[in-house]
Amino acid sequence: MILSDLIEAHARQRADHPALRIEDETLTYGELAEQVRAVAAGLAASGVRAGQTVAFVLPNCVEFVVAWLALSRIGAVAAPVNTALLGDGLAAVVRMSGAEIAIVDEQFLPAIEEARGILRTVFVRGRVGAMNEAVPVRAWADLTAHSGPAPRHETRPGDPSILLFTSGSTGRSKACVLPHRYVLRQAEIFTEQLGLTASDVLFCPFPLFHADAAIFTVAPAFLLGATAALVARFSVRSFWQQVRRYHATVFDFMGATLTMLYKQEPAPGDADNPARLGWGVPLPEWAEDFERRFGVELVEVYGLSDTGIVLYNRPGEPRRPGSCGRPVHPFEVKVLGPDGFELPSGEVGEICIRPLEPHVILNEYLGMPETTAQAWRDLWFHTGDLAHRDEDGYFYFAGRGAEVIRRRGENISALEIETVVGRHPAVLEVAAFGVPSELTEEDVMVVVTLRPGQELEARDLLTYCQEHLPRPMVPRYVEFAGPLPKTPTEKIDKRVLKERGVGHSTFDEERASP
To answer: Could you give the CA distance from residue 282 to residue 249 in angstroms, rounded to a whole number?
Structure first.
């Protein structure tokens, strides 16, 4: 059983039910099944065979979903690329995927020029332009015009369905090879843990090349015969209008999105929306106030593209403040120390995962055998994330290991600094990270975006930090900036900030005149 098989089943049982809504376009299950069959036949006629990889450079659009399902049907693999990449970066990811064929939106044709020596065929969504004489460019319509039989490859559960690339915001991007059973089993666990039904509309404002949209919106909706609704990008001003427009009952949040929604000026109709559940990470301390204001329940989970979601809080159960949930079957999750032994409750260590069923996490990092082996050392998958657990088995996220700041011999949590600074009423968003220190190791720097109309002096912010943080966590450097650089999933891209480092406009607490 693969995802495209479910589309066929729903097309027979509820052909007129909306399956997919993206911006102004809607496909019923009957229409989706028909398009998938046609594109599968078109891809096969174009020479795509089982085991081959096809790169996507596409925005959120129905063609993305149709192509993914069609490739799965013929046993081929989708490799969606971060559309924010340009030039050499995009070419490197395409090269990493091993794709010789790409499906590209017309707006990204200039960006893919650097990959012209890799690709042998490019199918274009939109107007066809000559990219390069050596690379045949064909229209998307060429894939949909086939009326012949749609091939169906006998796919095994461990065969790859999709490559999802890690964001690379804290290091080199990696291609997670995700098998068909990962896609369906993660969808099964997700719908069970969150209590979703076929009457739900799952809304996601994040890109389809990310797991939140592909694995935890589209796949669960198609598993249930429900509706997946997506938009081009997250917009704080349009979010609730979109929820109402699509009659969305469930949505996801990540990064700074919940904070940006919360810090908008309250309006009388905030609770007048159809949403009943929001899920994601992180869940801030003001979550209950958000729930009351918008009339929705929030639950925090923990996962990553590599492993899917492995820790859940269930809707309707008492909340444990700060907890990202407990392990669910089929995953064993532990907090391990540097020596590989499990740590007692309350001690911070690395989140490590062991699957109890086959093919429920990634197969490998494509083309990176040493990285794969390092992640799987001692028969545990090492996430690089830090947490502690309580005696009842609830986990509490403590930050990414790559984001720990090493200052004066101490490990400092960037997340804890950001949580405290983010409480200041003038602060909209904040990033904390380490910068090189003349005393070796690192000093703490924060870059802050203020709420519209607010003013704040660096000295006043540092006074606030001194009152609410242990001395080693108080920043040395403070910089005020406009919107912080983001990944396409609205997470702050600290790699950009760290590369920028201390500049002329940065306030230095140690060198400022009293």
So the answer is: 20
**Domain span holding position 487:** 404-508
Task: State the DSSP string of 122-183.
Answer: EEEESS----BTTB-EEETHHHH---SPPP-----TTSEEEEEE---SSS---EEEEEHHHH
Both 364 and 411 in one domain: the answer is no
Q: Once rounded to an integer, what is the mean pLDDT over residues 341-364?
A: 97
Task: Calculate ∠ Cα 221-237-231, nearest 5°.
Answer: 30
368 and 423 co-located in one domain: no
Q: How far is CA 437 from the centre of its chain?
A: 33
* CA–CA dist 109, 107 (Å, integer): 6
CA distances from 311 to 42, 166, 333, 346 (A): 40, 19, 8, 17
Mean per-residue pLDDT, 336-348 = 95
Where is 386: in which H helix or E strand? strand 381-389
Which tens digits make up the pLDDT trace of 173-223?
799 999 999 999 999 999 999 999 999 999 999 999 999 999 999 999 999
The structure tokens listed for 495 are: 């790699």
Q: For residue 71, give every residue at least 6 positions away whose Cβ sits within 8 Å of its Cβ, in sequence order, or none.
A: 40, 43, 48, 54, 77, 78
Same structural domain for residues 73 and 102? yes
